[in-house]
Amino acid sequence: MTRLTGKVALITGAASGIGAAAALRFAQEGARVMGGDIAGADTQRWRTGYGDDTRAVILDVTSDGDWAAAISDAMTRFGRLDILVNCAGGGRIEGDAPHDPESIGDDEWRRVMAVNLDGAMRGCRHAIPAIREGGGGGIVNVASRLALVGTPDGVAYGASKAALVQHTKSVAVHCASGPAPIRCNAVLPGPVDTPMMRALAGDATAKAGPPDASSVPLGRFAAADEIAGAIAFLASGEASYITGATLTVDGGLSAV
Questions:
Q1: CB atoms within 10 A of CB 50
Q2: Which segment of 112-116, 168-172, 193-197 scores lowest on mean pLDDT?
Q3: Overall average pLDDT of the 73-98 stretch
Q4: How much is the pTM?
Q5: Do the domain assignments include residue 2?
Q6: Which residues have a Cβ under 8 Å from the Cβ of 209 and sit 6 or more positions away?
Q7: In the sheet that 246-249 helps form, which strands lie side by side, from edge to edge?
Q8: What pLDDT is recorded for position 153?
Q9: Catalytic residue flag (residue 50)
Q10: Cα 245 from Cα 243, distance rounded (Å)
């Protein structure tokens, strides 16, 4: 499938999990991809076999300087930017600090918001002019199904993803008109079998099978590539009349 041929995409969180899967999927579908991640060298892993059509950069999404440098790098190397995928995110700073509404600390709350919400806001702010310059394109924000339900042990994460959904809608309306419209949509994954998910489930080495998925109607967690497929769809011309939308990819959890 080559539905992204000729497009240039910047994807954050590209060192692992959904971000790495999205970077690989976009490259496979013909896009020239810049993958950004704070992890540095780990971002290189998905690039095997794609050579000059891909680039990995260090990108801390909380840094305006890193965003400016990444956009400039994309424009210099590829001559344009068509797609932004805000995939970088996380639920905790470190360790077992409490994330319930009664106990969460200020630092924990602010760090989660800084990455999940402020990072995507900065990405949109920096990328919109570049995408508009090239004639328009698309932005996909990776939120979570936890934007839609209560999260007693992940209050900052849920709040950040709910706010990201609202920001998605605001960007969509702001960018819909004019000679170079930009579509903006959000993907809301359910549980995905990634190293981060296994670590949260107590398998920090990620050597065991996926965490228990008995509550999921389809009976399993998603593979990262399944979420990447939804992201690629929303970024492609197949979704040319879709903007301000949320696509929940959760194996049926939102239906029960």
A1: 17
A2: 193-197
A3: 86
A4: 0.92
A5: no
A6: none
A7: 54-58, 32-37, 8-12, 83-86, 137-142, 182-189, 246-249
A8: 87
A9: no
A10: 5
| pLDDT over 90 at 2, yes or no | no
d(CA 103, CA 196): 23
Q: Cα(210)–Cα(218) distance, rounded to whole angstroms?
A: 14
Q: Is 1 within a domain?
A: no
Residue 3 maps to a domain: no
- Domain membership flag for residue 17: yes
Taking CA atoms, 64 is separated from 7, 35, 179, in Å, by 24, 17, 27
Check 157, 171, 228, 232 and give the catalytic one: 157
CB 241 within 8 A of CB 172: no
Mean pLDDT of all residues in 144-149: 94
Under 8 Å between Cβ of 105 and 208: no
Read off the tokens for 215. 């509550």
